[in-house]
Design brief:
It contains 23 helices and no strands. It is an all-alpha fold and 493 residues long.
């Protein structure tokens, strides 16, 4: 690419510029390792295990997880195509549909969601250090809670220690994250088999538990209610990776070929996620045999091991959380914040902002103050991000036929500036797609304040991501019809 994009420093910096041939070092196995690394994480494990608690049989839970990840793989591959073809990140791709100024809206939404997750995962990591230190000294560290914070001094130090470990990778950039994912992925697969062996040797007879029917069958506690549980569970599972479905160009822009990103993601996402769900189901079933109750939290389970096993398990869980958090929750917002003000904010500075927000938000307070926070939030933010995915896909494939003029994406007076930098068709489609999900979200998040939401709105919210994608895609497609010919540009690549 021989074009000079650097004329407008409010839309361009070196981190947002299209990747060069020398930067395209990611092969299919790097993407597969990336996904194995991100899939093998504590929230994914607990989300899978919780399906059993909701009444599903082991087989129903595994199929639900696999299906959700097969569904979300489609927008991953579709949106990822643009990253590989043009070497641009998500925040720049969004300019084609939302406008050079309007793209800051989807970038900011993606960034805020990721900051929330980054803080939560950092808290989880700090709790592992806290648990590990307690095991080493032979008792829980404990201590009085700090006024205003609600956690003790040891918990705060462990949280900050884990935060500092991750900060090293912010300083050393994207390549250090790729190496971390590549080297830790095999380790995670190994520990899964070790955990499986440990449960089997301790519990025995796990298969009999797996053969137990779901609670939705005739005579069960929730007879006839399978679909009532299945659809919100499927939506939550899709929502779990909805953020990555948007900003996947942040990774695919480093792919050597389209084949690398397609094969790597297809191999790395649905199958490992299904296997993790199977592991979660088996291990949780084993915990019932060993401890008389289902233990969904792998940190809690690891702390019950004895000898060197507990140390090894907790250390590997810590490595896992670092690699997941950096890939899933740092790369995206770092680019997104940079796109808000390219002249002032580099990729690294965007990473610093993300890490700072993770401290300020005090994630332990967020987790304890909202009932069902993660799962309510999963569906809730999928209602926001689904419409953006629908708009991006329709714009790139149906309006522009995958043809972009890359140089125009970095100009505020070009074809993607629309009116004052905003494409009103994208904004209107986004708002119309979000509106039907708002009543259901308010009822789910604040049931006491919004108890009278109709059953219809609750049902719509159950399918939040799907509703958002469909409505936004149709509205945007209709509004852009007839304008397509004028907007389709030569590739400029």
């Amino acid at each position: 690419m021989n074009h000079d994009y650097s004329g407008n420093t409010q839309l361009w910096n070196e981190d947002l510029a299209p990747t060069t041939a020398a930067q395209r070092t990611w092969r299919w196995y790097h993407f597969a390792a990336l996904w194995v690394g991100m899939v093998m994480c504590i929230p994914a494990y607990t989300l899978s295990a919780s399906l059993i608690d909701s009444g599903m049989s082991g087989y129903q839970a595994v199929v639900t997880v696999f299906l959700a990840n097969a569904i979300v793989l489609l927008p991953m591959l579709l949106i990822g195509h643009a990253g590989t073809k043009y070497g641009i990140p998500y925040a720049v791709l969004a300019r084609a549909s939302f406008g050079t100024g309007g793209a800051k809206l989807p970038a900011l939404m993606r960034a805020i969601v990721a900051c929330g997750w980054y803080g939560i995962q950092t808290w989880f990591g700090g709790q592992m250090i806290y648990t590990l230190m307690g095991v080493l000294v032979g008792h829980e560290l404990g201590g009085d809670k700090i006024a205003g914070l609600g956690i003790n001094f040891s918990q705060l130090l462990c949280f900050l220690a884990f935060w500092a470990i991750q900060f090293y990778y912010i300083l050393h950039g994207m390549e250090s994250i790729r190496k971390l994912e590549t080297y830790t992925a095999p380790l995670k697969i190994l520990i899964c088999f070790v955990l499986l062996y440990w449960v089997h040797s301790k519990a025995g007879g796990v298969s009999s538990l797996l053969d137990q029917p779901s609670q939705f069958g005739e005579g069960g506690k929730k007879a006839g209610q399978f679909w009532v549980v299945f659809w919100p569970s499927l939506t939550a599972m899709v929502g779990f990776w909805a953020t990555l479905a948007l900003n996947i160009p942040d990774f695919t822009r480093f792919a050597k070929t389209q084949r690398d990103q397609i094969i790597g993601q297809s191999v790395g996402l649905p199958v490992p996620m299904g296997l993790l769900a199977m592991l979660a189901v088996i291990v949780t079933a084993g915990s019932v045999v060993m401890y008389g109750k289902a233990i969904w939290d792998p940190v809690d389970l690891a702390s019950r091991m004895t000898g060197a096993a507990v140390l090894i398990a907790l250390i590997i869980l810590m490595i896992d959380t670092v690699s997941v958090n950096l890939a899933a929750n740092l790369v995206g917002p770092a680019y997104d914040f940079s796109a808000l003000a390219p002249k002032q904010i580099s990729y690294k500075m965007g990473g610093y902002i993300t890490a700072s927000i993770a401290i300020v938000m005090m994630p332990w307070k967020v987790l304890e103050s909202t009932q069902g926070y993660i799962f309510t939030w999963l569906i809730g933010y999928s209602a926001l991000l689904g419409p953006i995915a629908g708009i991006l896909i329709v714009d790139y494939y149906f309006v522009r036929k995958t043809r972009l003029d890359v140089g125009q994406l970095y100009r505020d007076d070009g074809v993607y500036s629309y009116r004052g930098g905003w494409n009103m068709a994208a904004l209107i489609a986004f708002v119309i797609a979000v509106l039907p999900n708002i009543p259901g979200f308010l009822n789910a998040a604040f049931p006491a304040s919004f108890p009278d939401v109709s059953a219809g709105f609750k049902t719509i919210y159950t399918y939040a991501w799907f509703v958002g994608v469909a409505i936004a895609a149709v509205v945007y497609g209709v509004m852009m019809k007839g304008k397509a010919g004028a907007l389709v540009q030569p590739s400029g690549a």
